[in-house]
Structures are given as C-alpha cells and as structure tokens.
UniProtKB/TrEMBL annotation:
Residues 70-212 form the DUF3857 domain. InterPro entries: DUF3857. Keywords: Signal. This is DUF3857 domain-containing protein. It comes from the Bacteria. Residues 1-19 form the signal peptide.
Amino acid sequence: MKNALLSLLFSFCCLQLFADGQTILPNLKFGKPTMEELTMTTYAPDSNATAVVLCKLTNVSYKWGIESFRLSYEYKVKIKILKPEGTSYANVTIPYYELQNNTMKENIIGLNASAYNMENGKMVRTKMKKDMVFKESVNENQMQLKFSIPQVKAGTLIEYEYRLESDFFFSIDSWKAQSDIPTLYTEYDVTIPEYFKFNTEMHGAETLKSTNEATSFSLSIGGQLLQCSGTHLNFQGVQLPALKDDSYVWCLDDYCTQVNLELLGIDFPGTLYQSFTKSWEQIDESLLKDTDFGSRLKMNNPLKEEMAALHLEQMKETDEKICAIYTLLKNKVRWNEKYSLYGKAPKQILKEGTGSNADINFILISMLKDAGIPAYPAVMSRRNMGIIPYSHPSLQKLNTFVVAIAHTDTTLVYLDGSIEDGYLSVLPPVLMTDRARIIAPDNRSQWVNLTAIGTNQLRSVVKADISPEGVIAGTRETLYAGQYASRLRNKFRTAKDSTDFVSKLASEENVQVKALRMDGRSLFSPQVREFMEFEKQSTVNDQFIYINPLIFLHVSESPFKQSERKLPVEFPYVDQLSLTVNLTIPEGYAVDEKPESQRIQTGDEKVFCRYTITQQGNQISLRYLFRLQKLLFLHTDYSELQQLWEMMAKKNNEMMVLKKL
C-alpha cells in the first residue's frame, strides 16, 4: 500500500513539473524504453544539448561481508544521444580502489549495457559484449574500468547498470546531481543502519527534493538475521541544467549540486562510541603527530654545512636571508610539478634532486628555523581542488601547504617549493586561497587569507615620435612587480631562446622590437625592469594618419562574450596597471580627431578604469589606469562586468586621426 501511494505521489509531481507538454516524463524502468524516449530528437529545456541524462538512479546500502560491513552502490543510467557529438557518452570510465598490500578493496559486478535504435520503425537492442570492457591501473591504489557501448549514433538511447561493492564502509562517496549535460531525472537513495552516524551536507544552486526518515534494517550475519533501526535518505532532482566548465572558474565542483555524507561516529552494541568528528584544533594536533608531516617539522637542517657558506650573519635584512636560503635550496632540489601535503625523507629528496612542493617546503622550514627565522606550514586546499567546507572541519580536503615565514614580529611572508618565477608572497595563483590554516604549536594556529598578498603592479612609460610616413618610433620603460614579474619571467623561461621570446613579444604587441634589455629577470627578486626600443607602422591614407594613441593595449577584446553566465567569475589576483604615453606629432600635421577621456567602473568601484588624453601643442599625453580590487563576482553581477570589459576593450581600440595641413 505504501509503495503504491509513493508511486502515485511521484506520478502526480511529474505531471505538475512536465505540464508544459514539451518535456517527456521520466521513465524509471530499465530495459523497456518508451516510444517517446526512442523517438525524441531534442530536449526542450536545452535545445543545444548533445545528449541528456533521462534517468540516473543511485542506491547505497550497507551489507555484512565476511568479517565486517561493506557498502553496496547500485547505479542505473539512461542517456539519450541527441547529436553526433554526444556519442562520447557511450564511452564510460568507472574509478575504484584496490589498495596494494591491503585486504581492503572495491569490486564492480553485474555490469550490463545496451544501445537501443529505431530501424525501419522497429526497436533494435544491441547488448554490449565482454570484449568491450577493460580494466587498467591508474596508480598503486586506484584502478578504473572502461567500457564502450556499441552501435551508438545520434538518436540512440543507451542504458547501463552495475554494482560497486566497497570495503570502505566508513566513507560514502559524494553524489553529484549534475553533469556536463542536462539531467531530466536523478535520484539518490541511501539506507544507513543505526550504528553509523553521518553528517549530511547539501550544496549547489539547484533544488533537490529530500526526505529523511527512520526505517527498519535487516542484516544477515553468520547465517542469522539481525534486525535494527536505521535512517533512510532520499534526494530527487528534476530538470537539472548542464553544469559546464567556464573561464574564470577555479573548481567546477564547488558549484555542482551535490550531497556529501561525512562519518561522525560509529556506535556498535557493547562497545564505546567511536567519534570521527574533529575540531580544527584536533586536526592540527593530528597533523603535528603524523610521521610524514609533524615529524618532518622537527627534522634537523640537512643543508647545514652548505648554508654556513652563505654567511647569513653578515646580512642585515630578513628578506635577504630568506632569499639566500631559498635560492640555495632550489639549486639543490627541483620541483617535480606535484603538490602534496605529506613529505618524504629529506635524504632521499636531496639525493634525487627533485621532489614535491611539500618535500621542498619541509626542508625550507628546517633551514629557516636553523637561521633563527620562525616558519610554519599553512595548509590548504588548492583553488582548483575545491573549497574547504565551512560546515565542518575536514582533513580530507587538505591537499598541500605553503610556508608562512615571520618577516617581522607582526608580518608574514609566504613561499612555496613550486615557485619558479615568483618571489616572497608571489605564489602561484592556484595557491592563493582565501582560507589557509597556519599550523603552529601551543594552540597558536590561525586562518589566513592569501588572495591579496603581495603587490601586483605594472607601470609603463612610452615616449615616441610619429613620422609623416606614419611610423611611430620610440621607447618603452616598464616596471613589472609581483605576478606581472612572475608572468614575464615565465614567458622568457618557457621560450626556446631569447630570439623566440623577442619574436613572440613583437607579435603580441604588433611592433618591431629594435632593442630590448631586462634587469632582474634571472634574479630571485620582487621586480623586473624592461627597456625597449620599438617601431610601429600606423595606417596612412591620403592626407590622414590613423593611430591608436595607447600603442600597447591593455585589453584588445573582452573575454566575456556570452550573453548569460550561470557561474560566478573568479579572478586570480588583485592587480593594478598604469600606462603613460607621450607622443610627438609630425610637423605639418594637426589632430583632426582624438578619443574622449573616460572613466569606467563598477557600482562598488572595485573594478576601475580611467582613460585621460590631453594635447598641448604638438604633444599628446595619455594616462591610462586600471585597478582590480575584487576577485569574486556572482553570476548576478555578470551583466555589469561584461559591459565594463566591453567598454574598456572599445576604449583601448579607439583611434586618433592626424590631418595634414
């Protein structure tokens, strides 16, 4: 009776949701596609969709294994392929764990997959054969199962189902309601016995219908049936839009509608309650006791002899000492382009001459402490790996750390082993998170915001003469600081050689580079100074010369081209740019037209641009200033942001006209 009432309620809700008559009703039966599913050619809520998830059912429950509990995940997926580009969804990869030297593992069983096509007015089903299924190793702990469903083309309906059984009963996988194609209907059903206490976290922009109710639970243990109570959770999503990655987004998962279950504790009969809930202070303590974290913080300086040759005692400034230590270390160990939270033995790292950022950072901390400079790890989740939950502490979300260094008694600077082109507090942007936790003993840990550390600034002065032939010849002197200096060094380092660098620079700026000098480019320093001699040909037509007085553009075109945006805009760092241009117009010419001065800004003045142009005799002076002081803009702010960038791009491209007298 109860099941009949639930089915009736579900049918009523669907009729209300799909009353427009343009979207098909969800069919929760597998193996029996409806004619409507087989013949559909487009998905009304998203006519551009290449495919649509018609139904995805995920069921999670506990079972008793040989000696302990196991988790059982049952997946059923039904996808309609709408366009040729959507056929890639017939290629499926399922990750799972198989720990080496450990009895704990996961198994995938009961895999079935089929493709349904309409041929000559009849449905033809093609079942996937075993030779289309492959297993491969990702690393020592992870495997993945891959399969391809055959006979898939535009118009095909595909279905697949499988069960994953896991020994990791203490950790329920996160459930994501959205994917990169729209979803007609998705359901997440979880049944948890009374012995396990979980915290439930839902986040994302889309609405999920949810229920949480008590239920009875039966377990077969050693041939005997055990009855206990439990919790039944159910989440349903209907007509969920596609979640597609976009520019200026660090981690797409941060905005995906999802459900996360984190174990709070285990309460088995006859035993004491085992709590897994931790405060951040307890996580600090756990890390400080960890062999591959806390013990690395206590190690002796492995480069003590080499560091003695630096004669730090002769250096007056702390900056100078820190830079000398870091430069010595980076000459010994190269970053292997991997981020980590835990470190390996320093002897091994120094012998190999390469290591993760954590390996390098632990050695750096030992060297700084040996020099009498306090240094601490600042743990975090990298920006492209998702935010740390605000609702509860989570050790699992931490994936790396940078080094916080006491620059003075009241100020800190930051370094990381992954820095190749930066400086003190000029970190790779992926590490400039808004929540990093400095781990210090004696309960002195603290949260810090790394999004606005350092000064990122570009100041450029151009002096040039314009010839009657329209040739602009002059010099550009530029100061690059912070991230601007880091980017310039990176461009030079990744170029084939200096000739290649100059060629790319000339192409990007649309000038002929006659001479180029850079001071501080190869140093571990806060700034780079550049001096360039250049020529640029402007357009000459009859009696007129057409010139862009800015010469070196800040924004040639807006990066925000789409009319609407569903995701926020996340800029990497705050910055400031200042351009000054002084032009001498040729004798016998006068200014016929020139751009108007203009001030452009957002309502909160966090993004600001000022363009000021003046004339005095045969001298044209242009002052251009841009300032970005805010990193996160919600999708509701997108229209204003898009308009501002379009206005800036238009201003950057405006021309000045000189007329021959």
